[in-house]
Specification:
four-stranded antiparallel β-sheet; single chain; minor pseudopilin epsh fold; 8 strands; alpha+beta
């Protein structure tokens, strides 16, 4: 009886090819995961602002006073720091810097000394861009009746766009505030995200 030893296994070329295929698959999965993570950050930021807008409207109704939610002024300090001031009309404004909710006693759209501060929200994820059109670029304000009002007392309606910073033709979220002060989120295609 004769035993023969038969060598089975993979050649070096076959092993390198399998490692190459495995590397390509891992890279594809990692890129998909990054895209999913960015979409989650965008949705979370848009939902956070929607919740605070709804809260500001409810506070205006409860207090029977004007309540304003303003975009925070650009701050070069730490990302985790809470905002301390509203963006003024002459400065670059972006909702992704965070925002403040306060009782706006003098109806100027800025948080001033002595006005009750109701909420502060720190800067959102750096991959998320949040910009409002001209009517809601800096603030959203509600009168005692719960209607959205501009600083001069006219109705205020507009859209704040949430998308992936620098992306082109990607899905994002649109936070729409209508003329009676109701807010909603719509999913939409964003052509170019700032």
């Amino acid at each position: 009886m004769k035993f023969t030893l038969k060598a089975e296994g993979y050649s070096l070329i076959e092993m390198l090819f399998m490692l190459f295929i495995l590397g390509v698959l891992c890279g594809t999965v990692a890129m998909s995961f990054q895209g999913l993570q960015n979409r989650v950050h965008i949705q979370a930021a848009s939902e956070a602002l929607l919740n605070d807008i709804l809260s500001a409207r409810a506070e205006a109704l409860r207090r029977e006073r004007r309540v304003t939610l303003c975009a925070a002024a650009l701050d070069s300090s730490s990302q985790a720091a809470l905002p301390r001031a509203c963006a003024s009309s002459g400065s670059k404004v972006a909702w992704d810097q965070g925002w403040l909710v306060f009782e706006d006693a003098n109806s100027n759209g800025l948080w001033d000394e002595g006005e009750p501060l109701l909420q502060q929200r720190s800067r959102i994820n750096s991959q998320v861009s949040a910009t409002g059109n001209s009517t809601v670029s800096r603030y959203v304000s509600f009168g005692a009746s719960g209607r959205s009002l501009s600083l001069n007392g006219a109705f205020q309606a507009g859209t704040i766009t949430f998308c992936e910073s620098g992306a082109k033709a990607r899905e994002g979220w649109l936070l729409v505030v209508n003329a009676v002060g109701r807010a909603r989120l719509d999913k939409g295609q964003i052509a170019i995200c700032p």
